[in-house]
Amino acid sequence: MGNFEFVFSLFGLLLGLALAEVLAGFGRAVETRGSVQVGWLTPLLGLFVALDLISFWGVAWTVRGTIPASYLSLFWGFVLTAIYYLVARLVFPRDPGKWPDFDRYYFAHKRLILSGVLLCNLLAIAGQWALGLPPFASPGDWFSVGLFFPPLALAIWVTKKRSNLALLVILLIYYLLLALLPHLISQ
């Protein structure tokens, strides 16, 4: 077992559990859709958090050759994935009966959730720098940062429903572009 496999065995487990939390929330939303008003905000937030979690697998793969099998690596990764697990746990209400309107739940929890996503992404960038990897090595990296961080930061603070919907859609389009552009450019 190499360093990456050793270190990522812990992170992969926690990231997988975080994804399971988001998926369980989607399941609860589907189960209770007749008795609660699900709306769009919480499901879009859940999709965004799931896609951001998945992106961490890609980041981990990119840095796999430089991750040392050390306590510091394990601790850094634990902090990052623990925050992500807590964020994922909060996306959907655990007891939908206490939140008959998921949009109200969204506005009550979105700052904590989106701030946690922002923190995880900043910690990942700091981790790349600590490993001696420039996280913004290409103009495309800077373009990606410009498309991701401003709408995320705005979504933390805006209070209007339509603005939140628009920012979540922009963040989801970002991940769609992140997935499709490399394939479109290489053709």
From TrEMBL:
Membrane-crossing segments per the record: 6-26, 38-59, 71-92, 112-130, 142-158, 165-185
Keyword terms of this UniProt record: Membrane, Transmembrane, Transmembrane helix
Protein name per Swiss-Prot or TrEMBL: Uncharacterized protein
Organism, scientific name: Sphingomonas cremea
